[in-house]
């Protein structure tokens, strides 16, 4: 029987649920301790129910909730402005994560967290290992950073809008092919994570260039670029290298467990994929 692994981008799920719960309370100054406790309780309850629905909807053979590391990940070390300005997680939410992990475990879904890597890298590593072994993965997240992983054995699902992201979505949203997304974001930058692009190159120009030349490498090697465009690329090689390093997800992190360790059901399924 073919394995189907569901990977939950846990903080993507929890923080969106938390934000929805927090909006139910008027924000007139700081939240009281009692209100914070109520919001956390509601968030944990809603997150657990969401996980139940995810399992029911996708019927996976295996599942894992993947959390970001508590400290600064490796990307901050090579680019201190990574995610600069992003709203910090509320302290009372951060302190409740272990309780939420316990709630997930009560449903049979274990949690994974690295000391140095983001959840995105852990998820990418697992999804690629599954695909290389001909097994299926569904990533539960609204994060566009997973879109380059889309393929025959990897799909990405938005739990909140109840839709799958696919190659057609990528084409309509960005006007490039899925395989061109990293080059696309290298040109435009990624404002969500504060990863720089090329000044003066927006989505329209980036997609036109990639549709014409096929790749960033081919664009840089082209001799027929408009002078105004070619000028924008002057002295950008080091920036491109940094941006691509930041944008590309790690796919080779040693995780130290076997697929059978995160099995949900007792059916006989492939268990020889070492991670």
UniProtKB/TrEMBL annotation:
Chain positions recorded as Mg(2+) binding sites: 120
UniProt function note: Has flap endonuclease activity. During DNA replication, flap endonucleases cleave the 5'-overhanging flap structure that is generated by displacement synthesis when DNA polymerase encounters the 5'-end of a downstream Okazaki fragment.
InterPro entries according to UniProt: 5-3_exonucl_a-hlix_arch_N, 5-3_exonuclease, 5-3_exonuclease_C_sf, DNA_polI_H3TH, FEN, HhH2, PIN-like_dom_sf, Xni
UniProt remark on cofactor binding: Binds 1 K(+) per subunit. The potassium ion strongly increases the affinity for DNA. Binds 2 Mg(2+) per subunit. Only one magnesium ion has a direct interaction with the protein, the other interactions are indirect.
GO molecular function: endonuclease activity; hydrolase activity
The name this protein goes by in its record: Flap endonuclease Xni
Protein's organism: Thalassotalea psychrophila
Protein family: Belongs to the Xni family.
Required cofactor(s): K(+); Mg(2+)
Pfam families: 5_3_exonuc, 5_3_exonuc_N
Domain 5'-3' exonuclease, chain residue ranges per copy: 3-265
Major enzyme class: hydrolase
Aminoacyl-tRNA synthetase as UniProt keyword: no
Enzyme Commission code(s) on record: 3.1.-.-
Binding site for K(+): 187, 196, 198, 201
Domain of life: Bacteria
Region feature Interaction with DNA, mapped onto this chain: 200-205
UniProt keyword list: DNA-binding, Endonuclease, Hydrolase, Magnesium, Metal-binding, Nuclease, Potassium
UniProt key word Metal-binding: yes
Coiled coil start-end: none
CDD domains: H3TH_53EXO, PIN_53EXO
Origin organism lineage: Bacteria, Pseudomonadati, Pseudomonadota, Gammaproteobacteria, Alteromonadales
């Amino acid at each position: 029987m073919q394995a189907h692994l569901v990977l939950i981008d846990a903080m993507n799920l929890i923080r969106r649920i938390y934000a929805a719960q927090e909006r139910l309370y008027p924000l007139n100054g700081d939240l009281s301790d009692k209100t914070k406790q109520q919001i956390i309780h509601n968030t944990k309850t809603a997150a657990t129910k969401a996980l139940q629905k995810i399992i029911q909807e996708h019927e996976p053979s295996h599942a894992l909730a993947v959390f970001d590391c508590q400290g600064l990940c490796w990307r901050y070390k090579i680019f201190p402005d990574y995610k600069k300005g992003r709203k910090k997680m509320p302290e009372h939410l951060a302190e409740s994560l272990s309780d939420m992990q316990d709630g997930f475990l009560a449903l049979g879904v274990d949690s994974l967290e690295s000391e140095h890597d983001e959840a995105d890298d852990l998820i990418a590593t697992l999804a690629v290992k599954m695909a290389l072994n001909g097994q299926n993965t569904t990533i539960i997240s609204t994060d566009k950073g997973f879109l380059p992983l889309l393929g025959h054995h990897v799909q990405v699902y938005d739990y909140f809008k109840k839709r799958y992201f696919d190659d057609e979505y990528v084409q309509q949203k960005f006007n490039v092919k899925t395989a061109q997304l990293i080059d696309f974001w290298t040109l435009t930058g990624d404002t969500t994570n504060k990863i720089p692009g090329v000044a003066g190159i927006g989505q329209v120009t980036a997609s036109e260039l990639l549709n014409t030349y096929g790749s960033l490498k081919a664009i840089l090697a082209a001799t027929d670029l408009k002078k105004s465009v070619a000028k924008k690329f002057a002295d950008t090689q080091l920036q491109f290298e940094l941006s691509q390093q930041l944008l590309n997800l790690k796919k080779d992190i040693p995780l130290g467990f076997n697929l059978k360790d995160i099995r949900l059901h007792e059916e006989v399924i492939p268990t020889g994929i070492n991670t």
